[in-house]
Design brief:
Blueprint lengths: L18 H4 L1 H15 L4 H15 L2 H13 L4 H6 L12 H15 L7 H10 L2 H24 L13
Length: 165
């Protein structure tokens, strides 16, 4: 009979700054922006967008949060895992979801300084104007949250699904 040695994980990093405590009005404004941006968007699509932007921005805190919220909203583990390679895994997603993810990447990265017309037009084909405006707002909001999370090194792993919903 062998006894397994307990795994020793790397130490949890220390958050640099509790930014919400030091800028409470900014935090409250971000929460209001987030609530307004999510209106009218299907919860699973909304979470896929949040996860994809957070993957690109390397925001571990937001990945933890939105993965848990996506699972709670009924999203599958398989689709969450494949999101990193969505271009090679297109068959896991609807055309509307693909348009949203592609737009998320274009808005998040902005390497050429603009969102390509073809990407915008694909999204506009799948979303009514009001819903597209909400999607763009949701993408902008997660990018702002990611920047707070990455800059202050917010620690992932403690979020419970729906905690900030």
């Amino acid at each position: 009979m062998t006894t397994e040695e307990p795994l020793e994980y790397a130490p949890e990093p220390t958050q640099r700054l509790q930014w919400a405590q030091h800028a409470p009005e900014v935090y409250k404004a971000m929460v209001r922006l987030e609530a307004a941006a999510r209106r009218g968007l299907e919860p699973r699509l909304y979470e896929l967008v949040k996860i994809r932007a957070s993957q690109i921005n390397h925001c571990a805190f937001c990945l933890d949060m939105h993965t848990k919220d996506a699972l709670a909203a009924g999203e599958s583990v398989e689709r969450i895992v494949q999101l990193t390679a969505w271009e090679e895994s297109r068959h896991f997603y609807t055309e509307k979801e693909l348009a949203a993810v592609e737009l998320t990447e274009a808005v998040t990265v902005l390497t050429d300084g603009f969102v390509p017309d073809a990407v915008y037009e694909r999204a506009a084909k799948h979303f009514e104007e009001a819903e597209l405006a909400q999607l763009i707002a949701a993408i902008a909001a997660i990018n702002a949250w990611n920047r707070f999370g990455v800059t202050t090194r917010m620690t992932p792993g403690h979020y419970q699904a729906g905690q900030h919903g």
